[in-house]
Amino acid sequence: MRHFKLAFWGIIALLTALWLLAEPSVFQAADFLALRGLMVQYSGIVAMAAMSIAMVLALRPRWPERWLGGLDKMYRLHKWLGITALVVAVAHWLWGKAPKWAVAWGLMERRPRGARPPLENPIQQFLMTQRGTAEGLGEYAFYAAVVLIAIALVAYVPYRLFYKTHRLMAVVYLALVFHAVVLISFGYWTTPVGLVMAVLMAAGTYASAVVLFRRVGAARQVQGRIASLHYYPGVKALETEIEVPQGWPGHKPGQFAFATSDQTEGAHPYTIASAWNERDRRITFITKEIGDHTRRLRERLKVGQQVTIEGPYGCFDFDDNRPRQIWIGAGIGITPFIAALKHRVLERRAHSDQQSVDVDLFHSTTDYDDRAIAKLHSDAEAAGVRLHVVLSSRDGRLTGDRIRELVPDWREASIWFCGPTGFGEALQRDFARQGMAVDEHFHQELFDMR
What we know:
Blueprint: H1 2-22, H2 32-57, H3 65-68, H4 71-104, H5 122-129, H6 131-153, H7 159-166, H8 169-183, H9 192-212, E1 221-232, E2 237-243, E3 256-260, E4 268-271, E5 282-288, H10 292-300, E6 306-313, E7 324-330, H11 335-350, E8 358-365, H12 370-383, E9 386-391, H13 392-395, H14 400-406, E10 413-418, H15 421-433, H16 438-441, E11 442-445
Parallel strand pairs: 7-8, 7-10, 8-9, 10-11
Antiparallel strand pairs: 1-2, 1-6, 2-5, 3-4, 3-6
C-alpha cells in the first residue's frame, strides 16, 4: 500500500517540479489570460502523463509488480492515474473554454491579438498548421475519454461491456497524443519536462498498439482444459479444476491468474486455490456467484472445455520473516488461503524435518456449506493450521478484539487479509491503534481489477 501511494504522489510531484523548471515565471503571470495559458499547459501535461503511465500499467508489466506489492496494487495505481487524468483533463478543458464563455457573456473583454513573430523552425511551422485539427480532435477525444472512464468506474456496468469499451481508450489515447504533441509549448521539448513527456507518450503509444492488437499478457498465456467442476450450493461457489499440460511456470500460494473461457467476456482474474505440483500440473479456481459473469459460469463451463490461462500474478505469497502468521479470509477471500493450506501439506511431506510457521486461519462468512467447511477443516488439519470459522449469523462479526483474544501472541505475527476492502481497512486501523506496524506486517489483497 505504501509504495503505490508513494509512486502516485511521486509522479505528480515530479511532473510539477519539471514543469516549474520550464516555466519559472508562472508566479509572476501578468494577468489572468497569461495565467490561463500556463495552466492549460500544466494541466495538459499532468493529464497526458497520468494517462500514459496508466496505459503502460494496463500491459501488466512484471518489473514494477514486486515493488508496488503486486498486480492488484498496480491496478489500483492504474485506476488512480485514470481518475487523475479525468479530473485534470476536465480542469484543462475548463481553462481553455471558460475565458471564451466569459467573453461571450460580456464578463471579459477579448484581448487583441498582435501579429505573431515569424517562425524559423520548420518543425514548429508544421505544428502550427496542425493546431486547429489538434484542438478539435482533442476536444472530441476528451468527451470520449470522460464516457469511457465513467463506464470503467461504475461498478453496475456489466464486465463484458466494460471489457469491450475499455479497449477503445487506446484509440482515444492516440488521438490525445496527437493533440499533445501539436499543442504542448514548443519550447518545452528541449527541457526535462519535454523529454519526460516524449518518453511517456512513446511508451503509451506502444502500449496502445499492444492493447489494440490484443496482445496484453500474450507471453504469459497457456492453454488448459477443464478437468472437473464441483458446485457448493450453500456458498454459491464453483470449483473449477484445469489441466495445464504445457507452459505453466508454476505459482506460489496466494497468487492469481486471468482465465478466458469466452472471448466475448475477455479475461477475468481469479485467485488460484491450489498448490502447484509439477507431476500433476493442475490449477484450481473457486468462483463465487457475485456478478453477472460468475453467475453464468455454472451453466457455461463444461468438462473438457478449452480455456486460456495467463499468469501467475500477485505478491500475496505469505513470504515474510515473522515467526507466526494470522490469515483472515472473508467470504470468497478464503481462496488464497486454501492454496496456502495445500502448499503447506506438500511442504510438510517434502521437508518433514523442518519447522513451519505457526498459523491461525480465520474464515469469516455469511454463507455456510457443510461440504465446503468440512473440506476446509480437513485441509487445515493436514496443514497443521488452527482454523476458526466465524459464521456471522451465529457468531457475530469478526473483530480485532476477537482475533487478539484467540491469538495472544499476535504482536509477533504478520496478518494476511483477503476479502472486502472496507473490512480489511477497518481491521488494519484497529491493529494500528493497538501498536502494530501495519505498513510492514499487515498484508491486504486489493482484488479489484476495475
